[in-house]
Amino acid sequence: MIPSLFTNNNSKKELRDKADLDEERRYDISRGIEAASAILERAKSTMAQEERTKAVQELKDLVEDWKNYQIERFGELLLYGWFFVSQRVSNGEIVKRKVSHVWPSY
After folding, report:
1. If DSSP states are collapsed to H, E and C, what string results for the chain?
2. What is the pTM of this model?
3. Separation between Cα atoms, residue 59 and residue 39, nearest integer Å
4. What digits encode the pLDDT tens for the residues 26-45?
């Protein structure tokens, strides 16, 4: 869990703007808010990557016969979760289906 110290930038900006501070202090606080935001984004990105890596391993373990496909050649998993995808089939009909893993298409 990411501490709330990093998560609510709006309240930090409000406090900075309402406080009776000189320009140098405002600048220092603004840079601190920017640094905290950058750290939060990197942490979220790392956590999402770890989740996707775990999802790929779980998928590898679930499928018994990959029919000579090598999952590593699919590329990096882009999205993991449940998504609804619309696809036009050969007769022109649009089919909606639910997918759980999305890889880049090459």
Report:
1. CCCHHHHCHHHHHHHHHHCCCCHHHHHHHHHHHHHHHHHHHHHHHHHHHHHHHHHHHHHHHHCCCCCCCCHHHHCCCCEEEEEEEEEECCCCCEEEEEEEEECCCC
2. 0.57
3. 30
4. 888 888 888 988 999 999 99
